């Protein structure tokens, strides 16, 4: 349904909400986020100036965005940006949209007793969200981030430039292939871990994200297990492995780490109280 006359901010939001309420579980938030993007303003502006009338161009741009959202396109893809760890990340359809759940992995990594000049590796970096957030907090860490997908590598590099973190090394690599003879004090990863047959893949934002970033064989465990096994050859003595996983995968991941010889294995919950990351320490052989 189109809307021809120019509207105030309050009317535009109301109209957008009515358009989105049947297709989005977050219709209010989406309507606001997209209008803020159109107007290039902060949230408080909408409530300070509810009577302000949008220009014809602004309303047209807003209509186009609302139509895309009605078709299910994620807000982050429409805007081209998603905030993670209070940093703005450029996003596109080549990789995963950063999730707030993953902030617990960043927080857990920052709490580890690592040396000031620790060597850290982020596997499957995607937008670069984890590696660049860690680098922003620990500028002295030697950070390497890899991704197998060429377009994701380009995106992570764009984010590195945008966030002005030039010392972060970003490489195209099939897991450890480009860092073959290197050891790290910390290896982190948010790999694909969803079972290929999971019904949730037909719902919401994941429909617009590539399966290369989402799904893995062996009920979603294939990449988690591959990383856990191969990390043993790339961790310095006492080095840590920190993996994000699905909320029902913690027990199996912990068991795998213990079987491989990791010690101090523990799971951390995210801010929604779901098991989200598992940590292990490598004592060498
Ligand atoms: N946590 C994400 C989701 O459930 C998936 C992220 C991943 O596979 N690494 O949508």
TrEMBL record:
Protein's GO biological process: methylation
Gene3D superfamilies referenced in this protein's UniProt entry, alphabetically: DNA helicase RuvA subunit, C-terminal domain (1.10.8.10), Vaccinia Virus protein VP39 (3.40.50.150)
The EC number(s) this enzyme carries: 2.1.1.297
Binding site for S-adenosyl-L-methionine: 124-128, 147, 175, 190
Pfam families for this protein: MTS, PrmC_N
SUPFAM superfamilies: S-adenosyl-L-methionine-dependent methyltransferases
Record's keyword annotation contains Transferase: yes
Transmembrane helix keyword on record: no
Family affiliation: Belongs to the protein N5-glutamine methyltransferase family. PrmC subfamily.
PANTHER family from the UniProt entry: HEMK METHYLTRANSFERASE, MTRF1L RELEASE FACTOR GLUTAMINE METHYLTRANSFERASE
This protein's name: Release factor glutamine methyltransferase
